[in-house]
Amino acid sequence: MALQFTDSNFESDVLKSDKVTMVDFWAEWCGPCKAIGPLVEQLSKEYEGKANIGKMDVDANSNVPMQYGIRSIPTILFFKGGQLVDKTVGAVPKATLEATLKKHL
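^ that's the sequence the OP posted. Answer follows.
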């Protein structure tokens, strides 16, 4: 199951993680977010133990999305070693997310 990232656990679970981390910034009311939600869940199962994959609700958490300039959702950020290493905006195919993830593993 995809991890749940929040403003309070972002530093410990994303920035200080020793694994590549994929964060899906989404909201309940966002249609394209609902379209890629199942893809994020699939990837979280397929890459369990290899990468951290999770979601952050932008309505419930405003600090981190503001810090990274999230202006449209879904936006997916990829982190490695505490640094932002890649970004995808919009509802993209699973293959696109997986290729970006693999590039940083």
